[in-house]
Amino acid sequence: MKHDHAWQNKNFFWMEPIEILRKIGLKKGDVFLDIGCGTGRFTIPAAQIVGKQEKCTQ
C-alpha cells in the first residue's frame, strides 16, 4: 500500500510556512502549539493566521 505523505514531496519543504499552515487547515481562532520550534519558522505565521486570543477566565 502506497502512502502519499506531504514530507515525501520535495516541493513541500520549499513552500512558505503560511501556505503550509493554510493547507493543513489552520484558521482564525484555532490553537497552535509549535513544539520543538527550532528557529520558529512557523511560529509567527501561525500567530498571524489564528489571530489574537482573548484571555481565559474561570
From TrEMBL:
<keyword id="KW-0489">Methyltransferase</keyword>
<dbReference type="InterPro" id="IPR029063">
    <property type="entry name" value="SAM-dependent_MTases_sf"/>
</dbReference>
<protein>
    <submittedName>
        <fullName>Class I SAM-dependent methyltransferase</fullName>
        <ecNumber>2.1.1.-</ecNumber>
    </submittedName>
</protein>
<keyword id="KW-0808">Transferase</keyword>
<dbReference type="GO" id="GO:0008168">
    <property type="term" value="F:methyltransferase activity"/>
</dbReference>
<dbReference type="GO" id="GO:0032259">
    <property type="term" value="P:methylation"/>
</dbReference>
